Amino acid sequence: MNPKTLLNDVIGTIPPSGIRKFFDLASSMEGVISLGVGEPDFDTPWHIREEAIYAIEKGRTFYSANAGLPELRKEICRYLKRKFQLEYAWNTDILVTVGGSEAIDIAFRSLLNPSDEVIVLSPGYVAYEPCVRLAGGVPVIVELKEEDEFKLKKEQLQKALSPKTKAILMNFPGNPTGGIMTREDFSEIVPLIQQSGIAVVTDEIYAELTYSGKHCSIASFDEIKDQVILISGFSKAYSMTGWRLGYIAAHQDLIAAMNKVHQYAIMCAPTISQYAGIEAMAKGDGDVEMMKDSFERRRNFIVNGLNRMGLKCPMPQGAFYVFPSIRHTGMTSEEFCEKLLEKEKVAVVPGNAFGASGEGFVRISYAYSIDEIKSALERINRFLENS
Ligand code: PMP
Questions:
Q1: For 12-21, 98-107, 263-272, which range has the lowest pLDDT when averaged over its residues?
Q2: Same domain assignment for residues 202 and 182
Q3: Residue 175, ligand 1, Cβ within 6 A
Q4: Ranges for the Aminotransferase class I/classII large domain (predicted)?
Q5: Residue 59 — pLDDT band, cuts 50, 70, 90?
């Protein structure tokens, strides 16, 4: 028999990640400079690693409460208050997850009935559409526009809303565009969200990497706070991708529901990582600042370099990606990336990996050293001159 006939109808329609496909190819080649993966290049700060080592030494290697260690949940609440003026109760409103990734998955598995619509912004993080569809939902795509600095506009939201809309998924600062929404930007759409009563799943994993002004969380609008599921994590802010640690803050009824999915699927986030997470949030502000300053310098360097060689690239205000247009080259984003890899051995990600509206762009991560960025820019320049 064909084992594939055993699978459900959705899984077969979900493509493998367009990022992975490309990087498997790049990793089989010699001498490639990769500006592809969305991962900070810093070591996890030593004092955070030390706490994990200490936890192992002390034998703190057991399951934690499903929702996470109380001390970590308290620390998350202090952090959200200190940084974004958000008030949550540690014992009812916080759930510690296996990265932001698990948080996205369990949010939709808890919210959706079959055929519920979810407004998904595009270009957007590769996991969003698959997570919605695997939870039985129907993604309704809203195309963010370069001329709007990849912000969500009120008219776009209005048009996408229908009686079947259950939720909207947002990600500011955004992957892959680096777009942000200011308080004024959110003020335009909040009344519509309040009126419609839909859930807002907001992935704010890049909140700490906001370069102009302070990050504004949509959860800070009191009139819709009970509708908001705030997702974040430790991967980007503290350079802790491999620790698999994230969290959700939301109304207690939503947290209780998501905790059911979490407890039966996951049990708890890795306990040793949770001890490291307490240290990160309590004493990591200086590390965050240092990394952010470094990313900002690299952002300025790469944007100036790309613009100088004619790859039109507005200054992104958040995250660690630039998303230049490659339309004038006449190549599709996949052609551009394939040829750049083949001819100059530089790996970047085709924009269409982030949805159809990413076509005509490429995503370049600048979470790499200035030396690597400099060499990559020289190679990209040569590629453009010769093509
Ligand atoms: N959301 C966004 C927008 C991301 O870019 C990523 C990682 N690339 C994640 C969530 C997942 O992060 P993690 O599971 O490591 O917390």
A1: 12-21
A2: yes
A3: yes
A4: 31-380
A5: very high
Is 235 close to ligand 1, i.e. is its CB under 6 Å away?
A: yes
Chain-centroid distance of CA 275 in Å reads 23
Taking Cα atoms as reference points, which of 92, 138, 95 lies closest to residue 113? 138
- Locate the ligand 1 atom nearest the alpha carbon of residue 175 and give its number: 3
| Residues with Cβ within 8 Å of residue 177, at least 6 apart in sequence | 123, 144, 150, 316, 321, 323
Q: What is the CATH number of the domain that holds 299?
A: 3.90.1150.10
Ligand 1 mean position, distance from CA 100 (Å): 6
Ligand 1 contact via 238 beta carbon (within 6 Å) = no
Beta-sheet pairing, 165-170 with 117-122? parallel
Query: How sure is the predictor about 22, in pLDDT bands with cuts at 50, 70 and 90?
Result: confident
Ligand 1 pocket test, pick from 104, 150, 231, 236 with the greatest ligand atom count within 8 Å of Cβ, gives 236
What is the average pLDDT value for the chain, to the nearest integer?
Answer: 96
Query: Does residue 361 share a domain with residue 293?
Result: yes
Please tell me whether residues 361 and 336 are part of one structural domain: yes
| 246 Cβ inside 6 Å of ligand 1 | yes
pLDDT > 90 fraction of the chain, expressed in percent and rounded: 91
Domain boundary among 255, 284, 313: 284
Ligand 1 close to Cβ of residue 174 (< 6 A): no
DSSP category for residue 325: B
Residue ranges making up the domain that contains 261? 46-284
- My answer on whether 30 and 50 are in the same domain is no
Residue where a domain stops, chosen among 257, 284, 311: 284
